């Protein structure tokens, strides 16, 4: 398909008789940010490793930038940037040296890499820390440096595996700003994340997977409209269990009790909100449905280890 930079068909992977990726079909279009969402153990990391040719599939086909993977994975990876979950910067090198050494892995000359360094430092907002040791950087600085390092080979496609995990809100917003810049440049991004607000802000399309299968795919708005009632009322306080068993069942299109909170999903919340105003022991929050509601409905609320 013209404009496609990555595609899979019937992708499968099994370990010890247990299938962790089960017939996954996936397509990334040039210039988009695609989010791959799923709980722990859903098969996201295994999928990424297969897409990069680091793990061989048990079955299925992968095309990465026009190259068959894993057969031509090495050639394809030369045009890909990767930001892993965990920072793997070399602590023995400075910020600048981490960029230069990494660039040499792609066959670039020292002069070619050094010509790229000023722009990469600027993108990472690390111009004043070029000669700093890695140990002196904050978590946000390290993540921005890993992103800058992933761009040293001028990749067409960037894999981002949970890029803002462990960052404070300010650092996350800076990272999002840098990613938007890359998208405006026409880069293509494949993103995995556990932050639903991150997915909603950055991603043109999303795929929700669990147990290695695609559960739903589309734009954030399409997915919410297709799977969730448009309004949500969260109710909590003394007596919420009894209220959930009675009025909530009568007034909500769908109501769920989790812990000490009743989640009421409705097409129109007026009657429910008016009824709650007379419940002195209960408090409530009325909001629009979001990606987190979608995610929890499709994958469940139980903890995953």
Largest sheet: 6 strands, mixed
CATH architecture of the largest domain: 3-Layer(aba) Sandwich
- Under CATH, the topology of the largest domain can be stated as Rossmann fold
Strand arrangement in the largest pleated sheet? 6-7-8-3-9-10
Count of folded domains: 2
Number of helices: 11
Q: Kindly estimate the percentage of residues that lie in beta strands according to DSSP.
A: 25-35%
Shape: globular
Order of helices and strands: EEEHEEHEHHHEHEHEEHEHEEHEH
The number of distinct β-strands equals: 14
Distance between the termini: 38 Å
- Which runs of at least 5 residues are low in confidence (pLDDT < 50)? none
Supply the helix-strand structural class: alpha/beta
CATH superfamily of the largest domain: P-loop containing nucleotide triphosphate hydrolases
CATH class of the largest domain: Alpha Beta
Mean pLDDT: 93
The percent of residues in helical segments reads 25-40%
- Gyration radius over CA: 23 Å
Q: What's the structural blueprint in terms of helices and strands?
A:
Layout lengths: L3 E12 L2 E12 L3 E5 L6 H8 L7 E6 L2 E3 L3 H5 L2 E4 L11 H11 L4 H14 L15 H12 L6 E5 L7 H16 L3 E5 L3 H7 L2 E6 L2 E6 L1 H8 L3 E7 L2 H12 L2 E5 L2 E6 L3 H8 L4 E7 L2 H9 L6
Helix pairs in contact: 3-4, 5-6, 8-11
